[in-house]
Specification:
399 residues, alpha/beta, Rossmann fold, 16 helices, 46% helix
Length: 399
């Protein structure tokens, strides 16, 4: 059997690195076709040296030139391409069988859509694609015959708990599923006194207690906006109304999510908190493969705790539900405002509590429109970013 050829969008991030680790465990089944990165030239060069992909993509011309020089000096024949069009090309190339969509944020939308439209086996780790354009992406998958497999640990867990033969994007209710439970660790501040939230630093927010993630996703976990985005993602993946998607705090991060059925059964997927598990599941589906993750030792875990999230502590979660219930481009506005807010916090231009303040103000100021065209979605994204940027200038603490 010929090896499956894989494009990794965002190969230098945590998901991309974990994907390469899993792929290396079965080199006869998988071959890397393309790797992409935004600015990590040296890291991408190291990956190209190890994997020898046919193509590597950088976003900026200067970074592309630097990568090309490094590869030429190392004797690596990988072709270097540059820009957003090149991302779409390697996501939709006829040589490609599998696309890992792992670019963080709105930047991953267009190449993810390109992969869906080209009918690829799409491993979705870029939740913003569904948050911004859920209907467009699901429709593209249905039209092309692409296979959409969730990689977020929570959505992958739900997928594993659904009946064999279920297809993402279809309603889960006919299978008897009535509710899904998305687990959340609560991040590093689940027990911190609220009157000390203004003291939180970017370094503290990026120190997640259970998961090894990038800076942006780590801050999203600390505010629980990450879970809010996952609620929106779940709405599109499993065709459920917001009221049937419940978030539950689970500090051990052992139960990755659950599905409640009409007969009273609740099915859960458990495992150690390591993204290589859902990556390996999506790569090998419908079979299984080794992931390199240590077996779960329930005796060492000892206990599993669950609690409802606090709206006072995690206002971003309520903002995500608000945007989902508003519909249209409200979720696009939410995502854009959050990206501006998180970057502003990481740049020390706003304090931690202001992340939610900025997002709420942007949702109030930017009216939601129909989300039935890519042009309308991108326009709403731009308008929200513009408003959020002005808000930071007016209300921020300075650079």
């Amino acid at each position: 059997m010929a090896a499956e050829r894989v494009t990794i969008l965002g190969s230098t991030g945590s998901i991309g690195v974990s994907t390469l680790d899993v792929l290396a465990r079965d080199p006869e089944r998988f071959e890397v076709y393309a790797l992409t990165a935004s600015a990590s030239v040296e890291k991408l060069a190291e990956q190209c040296l190890a994997c020898r992909p046919a193509v590597a993509v950088m976003m900026e011309p200067e970074a592309g030139a630097a990568l090309r020089d490094l590869l030429q000096r190392a004797g690596v024949a990988t072709e270097v391409r540059v820009g957003a069009d090149a991302l779409a090309e390697v996501a939709s190339a006829p040589e490609v069988d599998v696309v890992m969509a792992a670019i963080v944020g709105a930047a991953g939308l267009l190449p993810t859509l390109a992969a869906a439209e080209a009918g690829k086996r799409l491993l979705l780790a870029n939740k913003e694609s569904l948050v911004m354009s859920g209907a467009l992406l699901i429709d593209a998958v249905a039209r092309s015959g692409a296979k959409l497999l969730p990689v977020d640990s929570e959505h992958n867990a739900i997928f594993q708990c659904l009946p064999e033969g279920y297809t993402c994007g279809e309603p889960v209710r006919p299978s008897g599923a009535e509710r899904i439970w998305l687990t959340a660790s609560g991040g590093p501040f689940r027990d911190r006194p609220l009157d000390r939230f203004h003291e939180i630093t970017p370094e503290e927010a990026c120190a997640h207690p259970n998961w090894d993630m990038g800076r942006k996703i780590s801050v999203d976990s600390a505010t629980m906006m990450n879970k809010g985005l996952e609620v929106i993602e779940a709405r599109w993946l499993f065709a459920l109304e917001p009221e049937a998607i419940q978030v539950v705090l689970h500090p051990q991060s052992i139960v990755h999510s659950m599905v409640a059925y009409a007969d009273g059964s609740v099915l859960a997927q458990l495992g150690n908190p390591d993204m290589r598990t859902p990556i390996a599941h999506a790569l090998a589906w419908p079979r299984r493969m080794g992931s390199g993750v240590s077996p779960l030792d329930l005796f060492a875990v000892g206990r599993l705790d669950f609690a409802p999230p606090s709206s006072e502590r995690f206002p971003c979660l309520d903002l995500a539900y608000r945007a989902l219930k508003t519909g249209g481009t409200a979720t696009t506005v939410l995502n854009a405002a959050n990206e501006v807010a998180v970057q502003s916090f990481l740049d020390r231009r706003i304090r931690f509590p202001a992340i939610a303040d900025l997002i709420a103000a942007t949702l109030d100021a930017v009216a939601a429109g129909p989300a039935d065209s890519l042009e309308g979605i991108l326009a709403a994204d731009a308008q929200a970013r513009d408003y959020a940027g002005h808000w930071v200038t007016e209300h921020g603490t300075g650079p």
